[in-house]
Design brief:
This protein is α+β, with helices and mostly antiparallel strands. The protein contains six helices and 19 strands. The strands form six sheets. It has a seven-stranded mixed sheet, sandwiched between helices. Strands 1-15-18 form a three-stranded mixed sheet. It has a three-stranded antiparallel sheet with strand order 4-17-16.
Length: 339
């Protein structure tokens, strides 16, 4: 059997379609590859100055330009690895034809390697999605693992953009002012970031509470057919669903989950949470250089390779990536606990 080169493996990865990453694509769509081990994070300090009035004959005075601060962070390496099971090379695969037309061991090996590569990329993409949601929810990312000490990458989101309603104002209460809350929170984002945030993400549990709110539904009934529309039927629990518009706000019901280290299914968006975000967050998927001789220590989004051992004979597929999700304007998002 031939050994795959990294170029061969990258070609296999390229042919696969990526998993559905609506939030990652919408708010962190840009890709940045660094040729350094660390990712440099620049925070530009901007004010809200007005241009001064002067006489036509007056001499212009040079102002003081805003500065910026730079910090750096070395991303942890993601290293999913799986063994190519030799037993599976000798037995029929699911969906494989019986008898004539069945696959050879080499073909089954190719299929198994391709399946492992697809799983690895999906795992890495889900980790990037997880980091993206941590930023949208908290303005920071906690990076930790069994062999990586806990470190927090804090992008310094304004504390005003993390909300928690008091019990009397929870959206599950009959008198909750859902519309007023949303309008106030959108205004807070605009004040802190200069961005108009129009996307509202709610969990299925929060959406159920919204639909039971009498004042909320009455307003929707009064405005239906003008600038407000909503989908009032049952919702799907698969990933993200566009539920409708409220004025100029887009309402999404988000139900995507991931599996944690203990095998528990965990939602990316908390059951009691609302997240508001605007495209002006200008997020980036940054990647540090791969610290592997085989990769030439070069910047790559993924670096797959085959590792072979003898006595006993073991063939493993390893994929490496060093991602860090970075918001260009961290104050363009807000999280509120509403239940």
């Amino acid at each position: 059997m031939d050994t795959y080169s990294t170029t061969d493996l990258l070609g296999v990865l390229t042919r696969f379609s990526a998993p559905d990453m609506f939030v990652l694509d919408r708010y962190f769509g840009a890709l940045m590859l660094s040729d350094k081990s660390a990712i440099a994070l620049d925070e530009v300090i901007k004010g809200k100055k007005l241009a001064p009035f002067v006489m036509d004959t007056a001499k212009a005075k040079a102002g003081i330009r805003e500065g910026f601060t730079t910090t750096s962070f070395k991303p942890a390496t993601l290293k999913p690895m799986d063994v190519v099971d030799p037993e599976r090379l000798l037995t029929r695969m699911p969906g494989e034809a019986l008898g004539a037309g069945s696959m050879s061991p080499d073909q089954r090996r190719d299929a198994q390697v391709a399946s492992i590569l697809m799983d690895h990329r999906n795992e890495i993409m889900r980790r990037k999605l997880w980091m993206g949601w941590q930023i949208l929810r908290t303005g920071q990312v906690v990076v930790e693992g069994p062999e990586y000490p806990s470190r927090t990458v804090d992008f310094n989101r304004d504390p005003l953009l993390t909300k928690a309603l008091i019990p009397a104002n929870l959206w599950s209460e009959a008198g909750a002012d859902i519309i007023g809350d949303l309008e106030a929170w959108v205004a807070d984002i605009q004040n802190k970031s200069g961005v108009v945030a129009l996307d509202v993400f709610v969990s299925p549990t929060v959406w159920s509470a919204m639909r039971k709110n009498e004042a909320f539904m009455k307003l929707l009934d009064n405005r239906r057919g003008t600038s407000s529309s909503i989908e009032i039927g049952p919702i799907s629990v698969n990933s993200v669903r566009f539920a409708g518009t409220l004025g100029d706000l887009n309402i999404f019901v988000y139900a995507e989950t991931y599996e944690d280290d203990d095998g528990n299914e965990v939602p990316y968006l908390g059951a009691d949470e609302v997240v508001i975000v605007g495209a002006g967050i200008q997020g980036v998927q940054a990647h540090g250089a791969i610290l592997d001789k085989g990769a030439g220590y070069m910047p790559m989004e993924y670096f797959p390779k085959i590792i072979e051992e003898d006595n006993p004979s073991i063939e493993s597929v390893l994929t490496q990536s060093r991602p860090l999700i970075v918001p260009g304007n961290v104050n363009a998002s807000l999280r509120a606990t509403v239940l």
